[in-house]
Design brief:
The structure holds 2 protein chains of 2 kinds. Chain A is built from 27 helices and 4 strands. By secondary structure, chain A is mainly alpha-helical. Chain A has a 4-stranded antiparallel sheet with strand order 1-2-4-3. In chain A, helix 4 crosses helix 7 and helix 6 packs across helix 14. Classes of the chains: A mainly alpha, B alpha+beta.
């Protein structure tokens, strides 16, 4: 039991008390426990509505809460992730995220201390539960950090000045506000250092308002190592290894601290994960949560697919190929007509197929069946087999390769004649694209609509439109990844088949 | 600095061997720039290179610590072969290996989490550099557009002034802005200089912090290949650099280098004023009066401004552009990657430059260093052969390398002292808890 306490802060996010121990808990201790929890959380949030999530969560949590809370937070993270992927500026993301936070994870302080505690508990636990979920690979960790940092920033910006200051003071950072005497002493250097940022960042266009702002501004003295971005851009005054950061830049400091802290604890969580003795209770929930988020890196999403419908024969059937984005159909066409693909096309296609669930053995069968129509099996085994096995992480440096996303595909050298890799929306001539779209079953006016979008120069926008059209407007997701397109189409078709099956069954009965 | 003084005092080498005890079986070849043979190198490693100081400088303590034992060294051989990930357990091991392998030069890298020798037994991701001196590299070839006295690999005392002013600007920024104290400059043996900062705080910087330091310093952005785009008012560091450069600009650029005597060069370099009439007028004037010197052309700017009777506001803009031109011509041109990458290797002080035979001697930015008088291996060998004094004197002290070794020794002693104090302070702090 105690071991579990020590293992990780996150380990204690789980139900900490055994049933046996609970027998000793009498009513009074529960009340004091509640008070204790309330003041503990007060400390974690520095009496504000923001936390660095440094201390482990305490108290009890039911399995249901565990899952429900995590899902609610996950929804927000997914929303942020998709906004980030679409390159939205922070202000726009803030507009999306703040209402969601206020709805599912409100932290605005009220007089009702019980309510505050309850809100904080939910926020605190959900953060730590997802930390467990996301600690398992470098990609997931990076995403978690990015999205949680946005939440942190949005919340900080929504706090009052008094609260902000209170929060900053409670953070144990090696920084101090300089005295007005110190400020006066360096005023010339301080002002010239921040004058450009006042102008371009805070849009203070005239000198008088800039001076005014400067006179009122407070400065923080901090070792220069903490503010690399501000040093790079020469936006702060430096003296004897200290940077003098104007208060309006402090959010940079805070997010840096937040991010650094989070990265560290994520790593330690990932180390602790294998020793988590929770095979029966928590791991299934965590796996389920992992599947609920659409981050492709998570293996558990594909475990189920791996032994499913895709094999060396079915991969060519319409049941599968109808879900293909145009790039994949184009590659399949190339392969079945030439019985060969060049290096980049092989790589692009084989990784795509791998992640729709084609196992390595089936993949080798599939590729061999095509390639051996123009060459002997010897040659295939000698020159190509290694290649495909490499894609599956079985050769060489044994890297688990991920399927190429649209950005990666678009950044490769463009295909020459007789090559099939790349993105057809970018690489095909207008006429051949038109023919391809028609063969995908789009109506004439739909084809023209797509061509119209395509002429604007963003190929993924065309693909997004096609996905929307093919799913009768039911899927409006931005296509950033061929496998995302495949997945959405597959789900769509599956639903369609199921309802058709049902109606057929109904008709029969 | 004593080094340059006593170096000049040192006697001219004679070719007659005076004492037979000298180990130098060497050279009849007195040419200072003659090619360095592998036996010359072996002699140098055995007798002259001050391994102890280099060891202490990298080890930060007299007894071997992980700062040294986990540090990567790379060998470059005459054949061009390059061997990375060497590491040594002690000063003796260090010297022995270098004498045995006899590389044409060796480079210093980072301190790793895993002993560099054992890198094959761990995954690549484990080979993380933990600490390294903060390093800077300035090379005169990057100044070829403003350098008329020499080009490519050649240098002279005139163009070395670019390096001298660069070391001053860097030195003051490193000390005053970043608070570093243990800074040493090293002649790279031919046409540039390296700067090593050994403060504990500098060694512990991670890559993004190193990037921030170099970007702060790299006012020109990539050796001036990009158009200057500095925000006004200038940051205190830029302003201080301008003030230092203004004084030197007249001397180095206008009088000595005179890069804009060539009219075409002047057109591309100087006509960057935000006032088209001024650019046009200047160009016309220089076409009418071809071949005016850089100094003349520089003063022409003011003259034409008066002719055009520019407003105060415009004059301000002209002055700002002039300041930018001064920066573009003289501000240090830095190699960003050397500073940014923690696993980057840099030639060790006191190596021999394989092309010139010059010793990569350390120097102080506060004193004038003359690279054309830097000790050269063949010269040193001759000095030993020509030694007429006491036979008990060791080889280093018979040569003009002596003052450089001594001043480096002092520098290292200081570094070790502050390291020891720092350690004590840190221990005291931890006792408080």
């Amino acid at each position: 039991m105690n071991k579990q306490h020590e293992r990780t802060p996150q380990g204690s996010a789980t139900k900490r008390r055994t049933a046996g121990r609970k027998n000793f808990d009498t009513a009074p201790t529960i009340i004091s426990g509640k008070n204790y929890l309330s003041s503990y959380l007060d400390d974690c949030y520095h009496h504000t509505c923001l936390s660095l999530y440094q201390n482990p969560p305490i108290g009890e949590i039911g399995l249901e809460e565990f899952e429900v809370w995590a899902i609610e937070r996950l929804k927000i993270l997914n929303e942020i992730d998709s906004a980030l992927k679409r390159n939205k500026p922070f202000q726009e993301i803030e507009l999306i995220v703040l209402p969601m936070l206020n709805k599912s994870l409100p932290l605005i302080l009220s007089k009702d201390q019980d309510k505050n505690t309850e809100n904080r508990r939910k926020d605190y636990y959900s953060h730590f539960i997802l930390k467990l979920c996301f600690s398992r690979s470098a990609e997931l960790r990076e995403k978690f950090v990015k999205c949680e940092t946005i939440i942190f920033k949005v919340r900080f910006e929504s706090m009052s000045g008094v609260e902000q200051r209170q929060f900053v003071q409670h953070m144990n950072l090696p920084w101090e506000y300089i005295t007005s005497a110190e400020k006066a002493e360096m005023s010339q250097q301080l002002y010239t250092s921040i004058q450009p940022s006042l102008r371009f960042q805070l849009n203070l266009t005239d000198e008088i308002s800039r001076r005014d702002y400067f006179e009122k501004e407070e400065f923080i003295k901090i070792p220069f190592e903490y503010v690399p971005e501000l040093i790079s851009s020469r936006s702060v005054f430096l003296k004897q290894g200290h940077a003098f950061v104007p208060k309006f830049q402090q959010i940079n400091l805070l997010t840096l601290e937040f991010t650094g802290n989070l990265q560290k604890t994520l790593i330690s969580t990932s180390h602790a994960f294998p020793t988590l003795d929770e095979e029966d209770r928590l791991i299934p929930i965590l796996n389920h949560l992992g599947a609920a988020n659409n981050f492709l890196e998570d293996d558990s999403v594909f475990d189920e697919l791996m032994n499913s419908e895709v094999n060396s024969v079915t991969v060519k059937s319409t049941k599968i190929t109808r879900n293909f984005p145009l790039c994949a159909s184009h590659l399949m066409d190339g392969l079945t007509s030439a019985h060969h693909l060049k290096y980049l096309a092989r790589k692009q296609f084989s990784l795509f197929l791998k992640w729709i669930g084609l196992s390595v053995d089936e993949a080798l069968k599939f590729w061999a069946s095509e390639f051996t129509q123009t060459m002997g099996m010897d040659k295939f085994e000698k020159e190509y087999k290694y290649n495909f096995r490499h894609d599956y992480g079985l050769e060489g440096s044994k890297i688990k390769y991920k399927p190429w996303d649209c950005r990666k595909i678009l950044s490769q050298p463009r295909p020459h004649a007789g090559e099939y890799h790349g993105c057809p929306y970018r690489d095909l001539s207008k006429d051949s694209l038109k023919a391809q779209l028609k063969s995908m079953g789009l109506k004439d006016e739909e084809v023209y609509g797509v061509l119209e979008i395509n002429s604007k120069g963003d190929p993924t926008a065309s693909c997004t439109k096609v996905l929307e059209l093919k799913t009768n407007g039911l899927v409006n997701e931005i296509v950033t990844h061929p496998n995302l397109y495949y997945d959405r189409m597959r789900v769509y078709h599956k639903k369609l088949d199921d309802t058709e099956g049902e109606t057929a069954a109904e008709a029969e009965s | 600095m004593t080094s340059s003084e006593s170096q000049e005092k040192s006697q001219e080498p004679t070719t007659v061997p005076s004492s037979s005890t000298s180990e130098a079986s060497q050279p009849q070849d007195v040419q200072p720039k003659a090619k360095v043979s592998s036996s010359d190198m072996e002699f140098y490693y055995k007798n002259l290179l001050p391994f102890r100081y280099v060891f202490q400088w990298l080890n930060h303590s007299p007894k071997p610590s992980t700062d040294f034992t986990m540090r990567e060294f790379a060998y470059e051989f005459q054949s061009g072969a390059y061997r990375r990930y060497n590491s040594f357990d002690s000063l003796e091991d260090f010297k022995e290996s270098i004498v045995k392998n006899n590389p044409s030069r060796f480079e210093v890298g980072a301190v790793y989490e895993i002993n560099p020798r054992d890198r094959k037994s761990v995954p690549k991701s484990k080979m993380k550099p933990m600490e390294k001196e903060l390093a800077f590299d300035i090379d005169l070839t990057d100044y070829d557009d403003v350098r008329t006295c020499c080009s490519k690999t050649a240098i002279c005392t005139k163009c070395w002034k670019f390096i001298t002013i660069a070391t001053k600007i860097m030195d003051v920024a490193l000390r005053e802005d970043f608070g570093f104290e243990h800074i040493i400059w090293v002649f790279s043996g031919r046409r540039g200089a390296h700067c090593w900062v050994s403060d504990k705080r500098a060694r512990q910087l991670n890559e993004s912090q190193r990037r921030s330091v170099i970007e702060y310093m790299d006012v020109l952005k990539n050796k001036g290949t990009k158009r200057l785009n500095l925000r006004r008012p200038f940051h205190p560091h830029v302003q201080r650099s301008i003030d230092l450069l203004k004084a030197e600009f007249l001397d180095i650029i206008l009088n000595e280098q005179d890069p804009w005597a060539d009219d075409q060069a002047a057109f591309t370099a100087l006509l960057k004023f935000p006032l088209e009439p001024l650019n046009k007028k200047l160009k016309e004037y220089w076409i009418e009066n071809p071949g005016r010197s850089s100094l003349d052309k520089w003063s022409d700017i003011n003259k034409i401004c008066t002719d055009l009777s520019l407003q105060k506001y415009d004059l301000l803009a002209v002055n700002e552009t002039k300041e930018e031109l001064i920066l573009e011509a003289t501000y240090p041109r830095l190699d960003v990657e050397v500073t940014r990458q923690m696993n980057h290797l840099l030639k060790s002080p006191f190596c021999i430059h394989p092309g010139t035979g010059n010793v990569c001697v350390p120097f102080d930015s506060k004193n004038v260093f003359d690279p054309t008088k830097a000790p050269n291996l063949h010269q040193l060998q001759n000095e030993i052969i020509g030694w007429k004094g006491d036979n008990e004197v060791n080889d280093i002290n018979r040569t003009s390398l002596k003052p450089y070794v001594e001043s480096f020794g002092k520098y290292v002693t200081n570094l070790l002292k502050s390291e020891k104090n720092g350690k004590r302070e840190r221990e005291d702090e931890s006792l408080e808890f």
